[in-house]
Design goal:
Two copies of one chain form a homodimer. The first copy, chain A, has a two-stranded antiparallel sheet with strand order 1-2. The first copy, chain A, has a single domain, classed as Farnesyl Diphosphate Synthase, CATH 1.10.600.10. In chain A, about 70% of the residues lie in helices and about 0% in strands. Chain A is globular, with a radius of gyration of 18 Å. In chain A, helix 3 (about 50-60) runs antiparallel to helix 4 (about 70-85), helix 4 runs antiparallel to helix 6 (about 110-130) and helix 10 (about 210-235) runs parallel beside helix 13. Chain A is mainly alpha-helical. Chains A and B meet through helix 2, helix 6, helix 7, helix 8 and helix 9 of A and helix 2, helix 6, helix 7, helix 8 and helix 9 of B.
């Protein structure tokens, strides 16, 4: 399959969906500067990896890409909020992202904090309104997805990983112990949200508990492999520690391949309908930018 | 009724519930410093006005106080996150709250941003796991409550009100126009979350759409009246503009009474079971600290 075309088509679907959601609709309009700060990194945004994986995961269990849209959009909103807060002067202090100024540079720090907050809240608003109609099984699936996304965004996953990342004093130390620590940070800071995209998309596409359990392991391993790939492309510009710095590029690349192979093996028997999910995972881990 | 005893008893219920929720449980534990930063303002916390209103609203429509606990806890988590972020140097730059240091003073700015983020995510995790069993009507009610809480926390309400509050350049101006602007800020920044507590508690207590519509108006007016009462107690220490500064204390107090009377009139015919809700509203607006 043509994975670039798949990404372009599915990415355009989520772009249109996100553009319609921000500014959020409500009785009161959101202040204009806040709307602009919320849109700054969201539209046109990045490569939409997590939303596309959500749609591919829905297809992998026999659902439609459209069924995954609420969680695809919600995960991208959470991802964008986390980038804005991570860039803040008190955290990574980054002034540039994707070739432009970060939100606190383009606006100010208060707006960067508040736009991030608003995007995080919007993720749950978008997801909860994604239950079309009141069919009970669908409502239950959406509610379970809310819980899983909230956990992935929270203190035991995304935020906790970030806190431990900031607390790592050095990227040198007894090799295996440090490697375990850093991989645990990657699992929480990066892989948890990517996993929530995959399991959320699959759940909204009708997955059963057995499939979800497989996809949780799949997402965790693909997520760490993706983070290694990202750090390989980013060498010299990293914030903090990474498996690339701990292992060196060659061993890190090998670790990413092992994780990817293991993940692909988990869904080897899922047939043709899982091919987009496999291809998206391969392309995320093996991309050269 | 003895409203102080009611507050103490219901407040203790929510205290126990919150203490069991933070640290959040998950496969990975949350980092210890993050747990401590999350608990700093949450436990023992404030007067638990919003959770107690949620429980009283459940009782007002014939539900139990316990039915409202998931939303009572979630709203208090959102309230606490918003205090932590509002106190940040780039927003209100407050170093003290409730007689102790604010989170960014007791820990650091990064942890204050991240603890706030984690509390906001935890609110939705707690709420979504509040559906005991999978009875369809209950699941639907919880999901609707997720959406309403997310909207109350978002760009058209809490965050938007905060952005407009920061953008208000001065607390002087043509009286009526400024008063309308400031009341609109109070409605979004304070009253929206208080309303979400009331409607959420009532919904989990089994309220119908007609009751919820009444409680939306009730909560909006009580919320603004409560904000005026809060600002009356805080004179000299305010951040930003308030109806107390625009109107002067006497006229502001009169406005709070008008709003409270109107709100109480809306639920006048609801009988004895709504008495705790009426008493909590009266006590919130008329308290002398």
């Amino acid at each position: 399959m043509d994975v670039a075309a798949y990404f372009a088509e599915r990415g355009a679907l989520v772009d249109r969906h996100l553009a319609a959601l921000v500014p959020p609709r409500g009785e009161a309009a959101a202040p204009r500067t806040l709307q602009a700060a919320m849109r700054h990194l969201l539209l046109p945004g990045g490569k939409r990896l997590r939303p596309v994986l959500a749609m591919a995961a829905s297809e992998a269990v026999g659902g439609t890409p459209e069924a995954a849209l609420p969680v695809a959009a919600a995960v991208e909103l959470v991802h964008t909020y986390s980038l804005i807060h991570d860039d803040l002067p008190c955290i990574d202090d980054d002034t540039e992202r994707r070739g432009g100024p970060t939100v606190h540079v383009a606006f100010d720090e208060a707006l960067a904090v508040l736009a991030g907050d608003a995007l995080l809240a919007l993720a749950f608003e978008v997801l909860s309104s994604g239950a079309s109609g009141s069919a009970a099984p669908e409502t239950e699936r959406v509610l379970a997805t809310v819980g899983e996304l909230a956990a992935a965004a929270g203190a035991t996953a995304l935020v906790g990983g970030q806190v431990d990342d900031l607390a790592l004093e050095s990227c040198a130390g007894p090799g295996d112990e440090l490697a375990e620590q850093v991989e645990s940070i990657h699992r929480r800071k990066s892989a948890a949200l990517l996993t929530a995209a995959i399991t959320g998309g699959a759940r909204l596409g009708g997955a059963g508990e057995t499939e979800l359990e497989v996809l949780r392991r799949f997402g965790g391993d693909v997520g760490v492999a993706f983070q290694i790939a990202d750090d390989l492309l980013d060498q010299g510009n990293e914030d903090g520690c990474s498996l690339v710095r701990v292992f060196g590029p060659e061993r890190a690349r090998a670790r990413a391949e092992v994780l990817l192979d293991g993940a692909l093996g988990l869904i080897e028997a899922w047939g043709d309908r899982a091919e987009p999910l496999r291809e998206c995972a391969r392309s995320a881990v093996r991309r050269s930018r």
